[in-house]
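User: Glycerophosphoryl diester phosphodiesterase. Structure?
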Amino acid sequence: MNKTIIYGHRGASCYAPENTFAAYNKAIEMGANGIEIDVHKSKDNNLIVCHDEKVDRTTNGIGYIKDLTLKEIKKLDAGSWFDNKFRGEKIPLLDEVLEFVKDRNIFLNIEIKNGPIFYEGIEHDIVKAVRAYDLIENTIISSFNHFSLAHIKNIDKRFKTGILYIAGMIDPWEYATKIGASYIHPLYLTINEEIVLKSQNNGVKVNVFTVNRKEDAELMKSFKVDGIITDCPDICKKVFNN
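Assistant: Predicted structure:
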C-alpha cells in the first residue's frame, strides 16, 4: 500500500491562523505531505482562500467575501485574531497557494465553497488556475456541493474529485463512481474498516477529516485510509511515521 498522505487542514491550524502561509509552512515543517484549503470568489472575481463566507471570524474586517474586492481583502489582518505574533498575515489568493504548492512539490486539496452562497463560474476558474500551474496531478478538488464536483469532471476529466460528506452513507463508493469522483472524503466518525476496504477495492480512495487525536489517527491507520486531513499534522505524522 502507498503511504497515507497527511494534509494540513487549512494548514497546521492548531498552531497558526488557518488558511495563511504561516499555517501552511507550519504544516510542511511538521511533516505534512500536503495542505487542504477553501476557495471563494471576491466581488471582482478573484479566487480567495478562506474557510468562511465572511471575513469576520478570521480577520479584523467584516463582511462577505463576495462583497469585498481583492484590494479590500488584502488590507485585512488574518493573523492577530489567533495570536498577536501572527499580526500581518494575509488572506491568500488561490494563485499564491498554487505557487507555494508547486515550489514545494506537495499535494493540494482544494475545497470549493459553493453554498449557501453560490459563485458563478467558480469551477471553471479553479480548473483554469490549477492548469496554469500544471498541478492537476498534485490536486484533489472536494466539496459538499456534489454538483460542483460533477461540473469539474465535465470541464476536465483529468481532475481528481472527492465527495465531502458528514452523515453515514451506504455504499459511498457506488455514489462516488456514479459522479466520477476518485475519492470519498467522509467525516472520520462515519466510517469503518469495511467501507474503506470496499471503497478501495472498487477503485475509490478514502481521505478522512478532521483527525486531531492520537487515538483517532491510530484507528484510521488500522483502517488503512489513503489520506488524513488534520489540524495537527505532528500528531498524525507520529502515528503514521511516513
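The chain has one domain: 5-240. The chain has nine helices and nine strands.
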